[in-house]
Specification:
- The chain has 26 helices and no strands.
- By secondary structure, the protein is mostly helical.
- It has 3 domains: about 180 residues, Hypothetical protein af1432; about 190 residues, Hypothetical protein af1432; about 40 residues, Orthogonal Bundle (Arc Repressor Mutant, subunit A), CATH 1.10.10.
- Helix 2 runs antiparallel to helix 3, helix 2 crosses helix 10 and helix 2 crosses helix 11.
- The longest helix is centred in the N-terminal third of the chain and has 36 residues.
- The radius of gyration is 23 Å and the shape is globular.
Length: about 525
C-alpha cells in the first residue's frame, strides 16, 4: 500500500503547475519517454529563451512574460489532437517531426504530410489518406492552429497569469514573414516574447539533433522568414555560448531557480482551480473524455465520505483524481480513438499512461497525489497496471480511485462502444468486483455516490451563456468530435439547422473551435 501520511495542503509554486504542463506537452510532442534525448525539451527551451532575453536586454516585466510563454506556447495543442490525428494518424510522431518543420516551405510540408498521413497503411488506403490530408490543406491547418491558440488562452487565463501571457499565446504559430497561422500576423505585430520563444524552441531541437553549428545554420536560413531577424542573428552569431551548459543536470531545478522576481505560490484556495486546469488539459486529449477527471474527482470524494476516509486522505484522493490521466498525452489519438481492438503494442502504450502521468508531477509538491494517481488502473487480483500491485499493497484510497475511474469511463462513450447507462455500468462494476478486478467495498461506495448525484442535466452547475436545450445538445455532440452532418443524424435535424445552432452556441459561449467548445463544456458541467 502506498504510504499516505497525515497531510496538510501542500505549498505549491505556480511554476510547478506550469512545469508539469511542460512535461505533459513533451509527451504530446514525442519529446519524452524514459531516457529519450528529448526529455525536458520545453524546460530547456525556457532556459534558452531567458538567455536570449539577457543578450537582448529585455526589461524585467517582459522577462516574466517570456518565462511563462516559453513554458506554455503549445499548451493549447491538446485541443486539436483529435483533428490532427484524423489527418495524419499518429499525431504524437507527426508532432515530433513538426518541431523542425519549415512551415513556409510547401515541399517540406508536403513531405511531412505524406510521411505521416500514409504511415501504417499500404496501397490505395495510403494514397487516399495522403490525398485527403493534402486536400484539407491550409484550411485545416488554420482551424487547428486557431483551436490551439484559443484553448491555450482559456487554460492560461484560468491560471491567473499576467494578461500579456494569454495574448502572446494567440501568436504561437505566426511567422515573421506573415505566412503563419491563423491570423497571418507579421513582424513586430507578434509579441516580443513569442518571437524569442519561436527561435528558442526550434534551436533547442536542432542543437540536440546536430549541435551548435546546425542550430546556427538553421537560424541564419530562417531569419526574416519564420524568425525575427534580430533574434535569429543573435543565435547565428553566438550559438555555442548560448547553448553551452544548457543540458544541466536538472532542467527542472534550473527552471524553478530562473523564475523572474518573487516566485509565485498558489494560494490554498486556488489550488483546486489549478488542478482543474491539469484535469481539463488531460481530458481534452480525446473528444470522448472531456469532463472525465472532474467527474471522477466528484465521485471519489463522495465515496470517500461514505466509507469514512479521514479528511486528509480524502483531500489527497481528490487531488489524485483530478490529475490521474495526465499521462494520456503520451498515447496518440490513433490509439485512444481507435474503433476496433488494439494490437499488443498499442495496448502496451496504453498501459504506460499511469506511469507517465505519475512522473509528470513526481518532482512537484504534489508528488504524494501523483503516486496515488499512478495506481488508478491497479487491481486487487494483481492484473492491473502499471505496477501490478495487489492485495495489501493497495489501500482503500487506491481501490476507490480505480472503482471511480472505471465507473465514470463506462458511462462515457468511447470510439469502440456506446456509453453505458447507470444501471448497466453498475452491473459491470459489480461483475468486476466479483471477479477480483475491483474492490467490492470501493465499488459499492462508488455506486452509492453515483446514485446520489442524479441525471447529468441536474448536475450542471449553471448555464452562464443561456444556451437553449437544443444548443446544449449540439454543443455536447460537437465536443465529442461529431461533424454537423453526424449531429444532424443523431438529433434528426438538417445539417443546415445544426450549423445555425453551432453558430449561435459558439457566439454565446465566446468560442470558435471544437477544442475550445469542448473545454467550455467541461468547465460548465455540460459533459
Amino acid at each position: 500500500m502506498l504510504q499516505l501520511q497525515a497531510m496538510s495542503t501542500p505549498r505549491v509554486r505556480l511554476a510547478e503547475i506550469t512545469g508539469a504542463l511542460t512535461l505533459a506537452i513533451d509527451l504530446a510532442f514525442g519529446q519524452s519517454g524514459g531516457l529519450a534525448a528529448g526529455d525536458e525539451h520545453v524546460l530547456r527551451t525556457c532556459l534558452l529563451a531567458l538567455r536570449l532575453a539577457d543578450r537582448l536586454e529585455l526589461p524585467d516585466e517582459d522577462r516574466e512574460i517570456l518565462y511563462w510563454v516559453a513554458q506554455l506556447r503549445f499548451v493549447g495543442c491538446i485541443g486539436h489532437a483529435h483533428e490532427v490525428s484524423q489527418l495524419v494518424g499518429d499525431e504524437v510522431a507527426a508532432r515530433a517531426d513538426s518541431l523542425t518543420l519549415d512551415t513556409g516551405s510547401p515541399a517540406a510540408v508536403f513531405r511531412w504530410v505524406a510521411t505521416h498521413a500514409g504511415s501504417g497503411v499500404g496501397g490505395v488506403e495510403s494514397v487516399y489518406r495522403v490525398a485527403r490530408a493534402v486536400a484539407a490543406g491550409r484550411r485545416a491547418a488554420s482551424d487547428s492552429f486557431r483551436a490551439g491558440c484559443e484553448v491555450g488562452r482559456m487554460l492560461t487565463e484560468r491560471l491567473e497569469l499576467p494578461a500579456p501571457v494569454a495574448t502572446a499565446l494567440g501568436y504561437a504559430f505566426e511567422r515573421w514573414d506573415g505566412r503563419g497561422f491563423p491570423a497571418r500576423a507579421r513582424g513586430e505585430e507578434i509579441p516580443a516574447a513569442m518571437r524569442i520563444v519561436q527561435v528558442a524552441q526550434e534551436v533547442e531541437v536542432f542543437a540536440r539533433a546536430g549541435g551548435d553549428e546546425l542550430a546556427a545554420a538553421m537560424a541564419r536560413r530562417r531569419a526574416g522568414s519564420a524568425y525575427d531577424p534580430h533574434v535569429a542573428a543573435l543565435v547565428a552569431g553566438h550559438a555555442a555560448e548560448l547553448l553551452d551548459g544548457l543540458g544541466v543536470p536538472s532542467a527542472w531545478d534550473a527552471l524553478l531557480a530562473a523564475e523572474p522576481g518573487v516566485p509565485r505560490h498558489v494560494p490554498t484556495d486556488r489550488l483546486e482551480a489549478c488542478l482543474l486546469v491539469l484535469a481539463d488539459f488531460a481530458d481534452l486529449k480525446s473528444p470522448y473524455t472531456p469532463g472525465h477527471s472532474r467527474a471522477v474527482a466528484d465521485l471519489v470524494s463522495t465515496a470517500a465520505v461514505g466509507v469514512g476516509l479521514p479528511a486528509s486522505e480524502a483531500a489527497l484522493l481528490r487531488q489524485a483524481a483530478l490529475v490521474h490521466d495526465l499521462g494520456r498525452t503520451a498515447v496518440p489519438n490513433s490509439i485512444w480513438d481507435k474503433p476496433g481492438a488494439l494490437s499488443d503494442s498499442e495496448r502496451e502504450r496504453v498501459r504506460l499512461h499511469p506511469y507517465h502521468g505519475e512522473r509528470v508531477l513526481a518532482r512537484t509538491a504534489l508528488a504524494p497525489a501523483a503516486r496515488l494517481a499512478g495506481t488508478h488502473h491497479e487491481q486487487p487480483d494483481g492484473g492491473g497496471y502499471h505496477r501490478g500491485l495487489s492485495g495489501a499493497r493497495l489501500g482503500l484510497p487506491e481501490r476507490l480511485l480505480a472503482a471511480a475511474d472505471a465507473y465514470q469511463a463506462l458511462t462515457q462513450p468511447r470510439a469502440w462502444r456506446r456509453a453505458r447507462t447507470p444501471v448497466e455500468a453498475a452491473a459491470v462494476l459489480r461483475d468486476l468486483a466479483a471477479a477480483g478486478q475491483l474492490d467490492a467495498r470501493a465499488a459499492h461506495a462508488v455506486l452509492a455516490a453515483a446514485e446520489g448525484r442524479g441525471p447529468a442535466r441536474r448536475r450542471m452547475p449553471g448555464n452562464p451563456a443561456d444556451l437553449t436545450d437544443r444548443e446544449v445538445d449540439v454543443l455536447r455532440l460537437l465536443a465529442r468530435g461529431l461533424t454537423n452532418r453526424q449531429i444532424a443524424a443523431e438529433l434528426v435535424l438538417s445539417p443546415k439547422t445544426v450549423g445555425h445552432h453551432v453558430e449561435r452556441a459558439y457566439a454565446k459561449a465566446g468560442v470558435s473551435t471544437r477544442g475550445a467548445a469542448s473545454l467550455w463544456c467541461a468547465e460548465h458541467g455540460l459533459v
